Amino acid sequence: MTGFPEAARVELANVQLRTNLRNATDTIRAKRARVVTEVPDWEELREAGKAIKQDVLAHLDEYLLQFESAVEAAGGCVHWAATAADANAVVADVARGHGADEVVKVKSLTTDEIGLNDALAAAGINAIETDFAELILQLDGDWSSHILVPAIHRNRREIRDVFARTIAPGIASDDPQDLAEASRVYLRDRFLAARVGVSGANFGIAETGTVCVVESEGNGRMCTTLPPVLVTILGIEKLLPRFSDLEVFLQLLPRSATGERMNPYTSLWTGVTDGDGPEELHVVLLDNGRTRVLADRVGRQALHCIRCSACLNVCPVYSRTGGHAYGSVYPGPIGAILTPQLRGIEQAPSLPFASSLCGACYEVCPVKIDIPQVLLHLRAKAVQATAPRSERTLMAAAAWVFGGPSRFAFAQRLGRVAQRPFVRTGRLRRLPPPLSRWTRTRDLKPLPAQTFRSWWKRERR
Ligand code: SF4
Fold first, then answer.
1. How far apart, in whole angstroms, are the C-alpha atoms of residue 235 and residue 223?
2. How far does the centroid of ligand 1 lie from the alpha carbon of residue 308, in Å?
């Protein structure tokens, strides 16, 4: 992927993008702040959310098996997918098995992560996005730049132009109601004709085998109830142990996400039920790098994320560059810590540096992910993985020198002698290579004639 600094430079030149972003993130941020202060035990809720997620990760093996048994007992079928390709193959097989050359989709970051639409297209199956913003992007060959507001970088005139070119020829109005109506007319027939629906999931309940999707438009409920077959792709970290745990997350999520007191649509389904909803349910449990993240003691907290996007809306870096600069379906602070871990730090070494470390993301995160801590942890890993051999050798030598008092004292004495030719007017202004790269942009104070240690020794004597 293109490094963040290069990609950000391109995005920063887009004035329209920055205006749209500022308007949207300012509005959501203010709404969130208002509704969060209404909850007297908000901090306790955050602690509870964090504790539940820690418990899930500590016992993930048990909860996954419990979830599998519960789904199958309720008439569903569970598939295990180690990679994106495995998960995509399951969806394609199910669609083919039912003679479907078209599926309707609920907005889902997980399916974007695994490139499901492209994989289905390669198998001759057309995947139709039914979320309003996702539909806009799909029609225009664009991709998401925000977790919850995927088309945040588009304004209504641009959307009207996309619709006029594709699903609503001749549409002149850019009124939001008219645009929504145009998409409704286009999608309604597709919902009714679809034989297979595909969803991600916000939560899976180990105790009952229930799957939960929250959304704002109702398109998700159409996808999960109208087609006779439903395939749900669930990242393995999305489990909650008990049904009652939803009480915590269904308070944390909407307030943190869109500044609403509750989600307009909360859909829950457990297996299949005669005469109600899909007749066949498949749940794909997706790893795709998550167990590698779990193995990292510091980095694993990124798996607590409930994709609320609050960290994006307060991030001074995201609010200027937008999501595309992150080169992943996970933008902003959560993307900066999740993408390098899911893909491997060598694939995205610049992302942990896409932050000012101001800590605003940690302050708003509903499950208290210490994003700055993980960023620093990953920066160290990125340096380990990408620094040239000479730099690593130099750092190892420095660590050895700093590791022993006598070695350190000897190095200071040596340094005082070696620096003499380079001291000009009381500063070290130009050092020889490779240290010249440092002094090209800054100068240094020389080592003092007397160190604290030598002063101390003399005083004691
Ligand atoms: S890291 Fe926290 S604030 Fe950011 S999207 Fe995830 S849950 Fe929300």
1. 19
2. 5
3-state DSSP: the chain helix, strand, coil percent, rounded to 5?
55, 10, 35
Better-predicted residue by pLDDT, 155 or 64: 64
Cα–Cα distance, 276 to 228 (Å, whole number): 10
Ligand 1 mean position, distance from CA 149 (Å): 14
Query: Which whole-number Å values give the CA distances from 255 to 180, 264, 418, 427, in the listed order?
Result: 24, 12, 61, 54
Centre of ligand 1 to C-alpha 29, Å, is: 13
Going by pLDDT thresholds of 50, 70 and 90, the confidence category of residue 145 is confident
The residue whose C-alpha atom lies closest to atom 4 belonging to ligand 1 is 311
Mean pLDDT over all residues of the chain? Answer: 95
Can you tell me which atom of ligand 1 is nearest the CA of 364? 3
Question: What number does the ligand 1 atom closest to the CA of 312 have?
Answer: 4
pLDDT of residue 262: 94
Taking 80 as the threshold, does the pLDDT of residue 1 lie above it? no
Residues with CB under 6 A from ligand 1: 256, 305-311, 334, 364-367, 369
- Given ligand 1 and candidates 304, 306, 351, which is best to mutate, with the most ligand atoms within 8 Å of its CB? 306
289-311: per-residue pLDDT in tens? 999 999 999 999 999 999 999 99
Cα–Cα distances (Å) from 242 to 78, 152, 247, 373, 403, in that order, read 19, 35, 10, 29, 50
CB 84 within 8 A of CB 288: yes
Closest Cα to atom 7, ligand 1: which residue?
305
Percent of the chain whose pLDDT exceeds 70: 100
The residue with tokens 């080592």 is: 447
Q: And the tokens for 400?
A: 């050895």
Among protein residues, the one with the nearest Cα to ligand 1's atom 2 is: 365
Q: What is the DSSP string of 331-368?
A: -HHHHHHHHHHHH-GGGSTTGGGS-----HHHHH-TT-
Determine contact, residues 4/322, Cβ cutoff 8 Å. Answer: no
Nearest CA to ligand 1 atom 6: 305
The residue-averaged pLDDT of 58-78 equals 98
Q: Write the pLDDT tens digit of every residue in 337-375.
A: 999 999 999 999 999 999 999 999 999 999 999 999 999
Give me the helix-helix angle, 60-73 and 42-58, nearest 10°: 90
Nearest by Cα to 308 from 74, 35, 103: 35
Ligand 1 pocket, mutate which of 334, 351, 373 (most atoms under 8 A from CB): 334
Ligand 1 atom closest to the Cα of residue 257 is: 8
Split at pLDDT 50, 70, 90, the class of 328 is very high
